[in-house]
């Protein structure tokens, strides 16, 4: 990788920071966070402003530019990449490393007295603003919102904001029509006596209106906001997407409708002025509901007395609990996904020994098999196809410079998934095409024990995911091993592969209580730097559990695997399994045989079916 | 229980709330929290102001008195007790019950516009103040500190603040002298560049100076504050305690000392003016370290720019990690405690069949046996001696009205502990003197499995206790059972039986990472309302664990039981145990035999020794 030359760009930016054409009063520093106006995890090219100004295109990082300095904060995953992508104008600030100053502290140390620090108020979240503003203020500086994005001023060939066609989803996919969703939402608003709600997260807008898009790679979302009133609906969306007859029909834009379901379509950019206008008309006790993760610009548009902030909107919570149609869709999607992976693994078993398969070609082949399936839309994230030491890089994505050939002597880890019109998948399998060492099998088996411990756990209704995290680690901990990531994340229904508000992690954020219908991943791992990586991931559905007793009538929950892809038994040291764990593996493989076997048969994929049957034979603990 | 007549008292209090003699401007409401100026869990009689004004003497509750109303907030443990102890002047506010208003919301709903709400700034913590003040202010009211406690004005026969003699602890008990502790503390202060630290928690003052007291029942502490400067020590303490030659010698008050170890003894009440004086002399960048749980009065005395607040002081963190002398002392204390309990259980086995033993007499007998042990000081909390349905009341304390006779047909639960000069104990055993039912055994065995799962857990250095909580519940969860309390709390070394900053709970507060030398309890339970209660509690020491591998060189930890009291094998359904669990029980009992057996022998307690040997025979899983 070569670094981007940024001298001229930074000079231009500094000029803009002083220019009365773009800013009322000069600023002495400008903050460029990652992210877009919707606080999305994945962003569109037009929003990659931090990458444009610095050259560093990792998924996490914040740039700050002053007259004299340019500094980049990023975490351990990206130290090497950032250092190689940025030129000498930039100072790398290694987050999590002792003595690295925080952004605020650094600003205080380099700025002249009474400085003004600018930031785009749509890109920074309200809570980040609050934290930074407090420190700057106490040191005599001011954090100021700069409404024109100053990177955009110097970014002459900045891509357009994507404005791709929309997909409408019928009741067979969504289970609940958008009008019914709005009605349920309004009930929640009435319960809290809040007459207005602002929807800022892209997946929440998509879910609410049963629409999907492709403005952001991997995430079937589109750029839009919505404001839901007790009697009105405003949708802020650009382009000619609303001229599509299918969309007009879906949203009933040309029908005679009860006025409370009439959608007022407004330009994307008008959200702020429209929200301000709504707030002007509020009576003293009326509130506006907004996620506390929303942008500073929208939060600030609501006068403090009218703000009703919660960590999650009722849309986020409703979206997390999949209904019957969504659950059925997720099952279908996972069956198709398993078919594609059986084809892939069968192909790999034949091709790897020839020495012609690389991490990239394997990933491409996986995509090819997936794309043959019905209702396939795109991948749900960049495929992690890694062998040998690359497997130990948790967020690895093969590129030509690192591309490694799959072999008979190294562990291969494939973490991949897809968007189908009926559901989103995310699955990791770890395999060996030759003979794994005893140590590799031992580690794999501990990871498997952890996977099973979570998957088979029974726990009370309303348990938070963080309480299950240790179950995944216990077998590793017993021998002094561990892995440095969470155990699971929420998964959307033909939506983002990572979604809130639930998960399974030692971290206690994004941790709303689990309830039946939620979908999360179960993905413990073990990584040996420079040698190999192991991860076993299923997407699992939270389901009611039958128990002998029922304390305080609370009811119990457990998980049902939606992912039905064989777990390589060759990698298992059966002596390390309990009988219960052994039974779990055999039952799981029996279900793979039945469900995926039938589908492979139906699709006439006989070779893959033979592979499935071979891989799902029962294992036994030798006594 | 009969209710206290409070009509006259409340009238007097309302007069005081308007009286210019006691308050500069009338207040319309007065808040009376539980607790003292040190935010102690256990309080002295002179600090039981909420109980005095209302009659309700449970451990948790907040009273608010306005011209027209008197209301009491308390939690589910105390609904019945509060209702029966308070007269009609009082409205019971059931916390945790839907539609119960918060204190702030209630105040807003009953107060006339622009009201002033008073509270003793020493009794309310800074964070409680902040929360309440914010809500009141946004509704147009003001929270005001009232420096004279208004309850004390109307409480004519209020007890004196206790001022009992002090105990000095030598190096054999503490391992580290107070001067060395001060030196270590000053290093921590220097690391953070903070020249001053205010010590407000009573157990922190006691630990720092290697002194103990008896001002508060069950807690060997004394009323005092300290302010540690880089070059000075101020101890705020009342009475003639500093005239005791042993104390003077211990603190070297009459010796020629390096000036930085010279203790300036000041009156208890002068803490505020002294702290204010210190703050007046601070240079702009100098800070004063204080726990964020300290009182509003002391927090507010430090100008905001000079405040350095952390959840825990370095004293709290240092105190939690027991050194070798403290660990050895804890071991000795637990051996003596086990001797006393072996005597008790042997006695109970003989006496219970006669039908003459009650919950109260059993508790008294336990205290009698404990008091025969060397260095016994007092109990460490009110003994929970409960049989049958009383066992299901988690914080039960037998009183004549509820006192039940122990029988051959009911489960007996004893949760008790003591303060010895060398350590603090806290142990729960559950037993049956006749034949337990299959269901009782089943539940007991699930609780035991949970106890073992925590006790035998191996986990990485620095793991937080909340990550271990589910291990204690897993066996119960599997059958739909659970218990509604945390699994463990920190235990002091001849100090408070509940101490921060670590614990094992599904709640994530008081949850600093576990490290070797910390001492916590392991006490899962199961409670069937109206029938029985089961709890198995050991105090355990965090110790390094030997593991096969050592991921990232982090090292691993596990627990070593300090409590060595037999677990009644009659209550165990061995078929529900794994071989590993069976081995754990047998190893534990083997250690009880060896260690406690030797001590019983040494003390010539032959009958109790026979009982111990009988109770610790190995169990086997019938194949």
Automatic annotation (TrEMBL), chains A, B:
Catalytic activity, reaction form: Release of any N-terminal amino acid, including proline, that is linked to proline, even from a dipeptide or tripeptide
Organism superkingdom: Eukaryota
Protein name: Xaa-Pro aminopeptidase 1
Gene that this sequence comes from: XPNPEP1
Domain Creatinase N-terminal: 49-148
Keywords attached to this entry: Acetylation, Aminopeptidase, Cytoplasm, Hydrolase, Manganese, Metal-binding, Metalloprotease, Protease
EC category name: hydrolase
Residue ranges of domain Peptidase M24 C-terminal in the record: 557-619
EC identifiers of the protein: 3.4.11.9
Its biological purpose: Metalloaminopeptidase that catalyzes the removal of a penultimate prolyl residue from the N-termini of peptides, such as Arg-Pro-Pro. Contributes to the degradation of bradykinin.
GO BP terms: proteolysis
Subunit comment: Homodimer.
Family: Belongs to the peptidase M24B family.
Species classification: Eukaryota, Metazoa, Chordata, Craniata, Vertebrata
Gene Ontology terms: cellular component: cytoplasm
Cofactor: Mn(2+)
Organism: Crocodylus porosus (Saltwater crocodile)
GO molecular function per UniProt: metal ion binding; metalloaminopeptidase activity
